[in-house]
Design brief:
Strand content: 15-25%
CATH topology of the largest domain: Dipeptide-binding Protein, domain 3
Helix content: 25-40%
Number of helices: 16
Shape: globular
CATH architecture of the largest domain: Roll
CATH superfamily of the largest domain: Dipeptide-binding Protein, Domain 3
Number of strands: 20
Length: about 500
């Protein structure tokens, strides 16, 4: 089915929604269709939005990025910082009726670490063993102090699935996932909708005010907004930056603007596959430097994002404690870019820039294409459905890729899996023992000042190769029905359903 026809059908289905939806149905418009609904294997941002309804975690974060309880009510580090003990919430059950306890935590942590295809293994690498102390007490043992652990457990590495369901369903688990969140899985139609219904035995059920939630992927921000204004959606994430001024003036809508903790950048295949050596950008760091110097970050933000972002050149924004000040944001220098290309012996370098079909990514690719052309680059744009583009990146079937990362509260979550040797999200193929040693050092220190110095060294190492050209840090732009209350503005960009209700 053609994407245009599919969009029309999606809109048509949404138009029928009021006929069978009561006021207790929340309809959420997503910018993409999530990948696998298995927290161990998933890697998309929209998947994390959906998981916030489906799968509770050991801990969560609040508006100020503080760690707060969820399935675990408290935690305590060991004296040597090489273990952490969690007290678990009593009376929690999974959607299949199975009990949540310390044995379930042990199963999940080991599954995250060892399941084939896991994208959580790098996040939990220092965890060596898990001890069940008693039914409501569990201890994670580490091979070294690990500063990012709690931040990882506040995300997919801390999500708990039903061990019974995971074992019985095997590789089909993602098709009918079973967790312990406020909503349970009903159905999924790829590229069309994901439907959940309220879990009656949820431990915090008094905070859940909807009987059903429907997630609908609509890549075009204009179409998402049109559906919101027409009353076919109640909430949209990543509203178009060019629409945000009119959204704020619309009396029927509310809006939220939150600076993200992630980044938008261009990931370059430098050693992931043979395609790395089939184009000058992947082959030569000097050409990558020239490419970066051809770009005006502030211009990209103004044109592609309507100013709704902060420029940057690292995995964390310049305002972050761990931003490496020894590697400042470079200014655009087309003359120097041309000189570098001449030094590299490359004339009119050509490469293909893969981009998801979302509106913002498309605009970024087009602005980059125009800017790089002035320095002599011939950039061809390849628009690809988001989940498909991730699979292609995983296989190294790309040359350069417009990719954003929604970010983690700890900087390790923005860099380790992307720049560490053979890590699950390392799409560039970058692998340097020196950088790996520094990445591991940054994880093992619990002293912020020491970690900051290590990140300066990491930034200097990465500058030699430029596997990722970091561009900017977006503002999360949300728009929603003015009758919807209880929206929590948390910098990870995820919509929490607890406390949400229609006035």
């Amino acid at each position: 089915m053609k994407p245009g026809i599919r969009n029309v059908l999606s809109v048509a289905l949404l138009a029928l929604a009021p006929l069978f939806c009561s006021a207790q149905v929340l309809r959420v418009g997503l910018a993409e269709d999530p990948d696998l609904l298995d927290p161990t294997q998933a890697r998309t941002f929209v998947g994390r939005i959906v998981f916030s309804a489906l799968c509770d975690k050991l801990v969560d974060i609040d508006e100020k990025l503080n760690i707060v309880p969820q399935l675990a009510t408290s935690y305590e580090w060991g004296a040597d910082s090489k273990s952490i003990t969690f007290k678990l919430r009593e009376g929690v059950t999974f959607h299949d009726g199975e009990k949540f306890d310390a044995a379930a935590v042990k199963y999940n942590i080991e599954r995250h670490k060892n399941l084939k295809g896991s994208n959580r293994s790098g996040e939990l690498k220092p965890v060596t063993t898990v001890d069940v102390i008693d039914p409501l007490t569990v201890r994670l043992n580490l091979n070294a102090p690990f500063a990012p652990l709690l931040a990882a457990l506040a995300d997919r590495s801390g999500m708990m699935v039903s061990p019974k369901a995971a074992e019985s369903l095997g590789d089909k688990f993602a098709a009918t996932p079973v967790c312990s969140g406020p909503f349970k899985f009903v159905e999924r139609v790829a590229q069309d909708r994901i439907v959940f219904e309220k879990f009656p035995n949820y431990w915090n059920k008094d905070a859940i005010h909807f009987d059903r939630v429907i997630y609908t992927p609509i890549p075009d921000a204009t179409v998402r907004l049109a559906n919101l204004r027409a009353g076919q959606l109640d909430f949209i994430e990543r509203a178009g930056s060019n629409d945000f001024a009119s959204i704020k003036k619309d009396p029927k809508l509310k809006s939220s603007k939150i600076t993200e903790i992630g980044y938008q950048g261009i990931t370059i295949n430098i050693d992931k596959s043979d395609r790395a050596k089939q184009n000058p950008l992947g082959k030569d760091a000097k050409v990558r430097e020239a490419f970066e110097l051809s770009l005006d970050r502030q211009g990209i933000v103004q044109v592609a994002m309507d100013g709704q972002a902060t420029i940057g050149n690292q995995w964390v924004p310049p305002s972050n404690t761990y931003y490496a000040k020894n590697v400042p944001i470079p200014k655009r220098d087309v003359a120097r870019a041309k000189a570098l290309l001449k030094e590299a012996g490359v004339t009119n370098p050509s490469f293909t820039l893969m981009t998801p079909t979302t509106s913002d990514s498309q605009k970024v690719a087009q602005v980059v294409q125009a800017m790089a052309k002035e320095a002599g680059f011939d950039v061809k744009i390849q628009s690809t459905e988001f989940a498909t583009s991730l699979n292609m990146a995983d296989k190294g079937d790309f040359e350069a890729y417009v990719l954003n990362w929604s970010g983690r509260p700890d900087p390790d979550g923005n860099i380790y899996s992307f720049e560490g040797c053979k890590q699950p999200l390392n799409y560039t193929g970058y692998c340097k023992p020196e950088t790996d040693a520094l990445l591991n050092a940054s994880r093992s220190s619990l002293v912020p000042a020491e970690r900051a110095k290590t990140y300066e060294q990491i930034a200097a190492e990465l500058l030699k190769e430029r596997p990722i050209i970091y561009l900017f840090h977006r503002d999360w732009l949300w728009a929603y029905n003015n009758k919807l209350s209880g929206v929590k503005e948390i910098p990870d960009g995820l919509l929490r359903l607890s406390g949400l209700k229609f006035n």
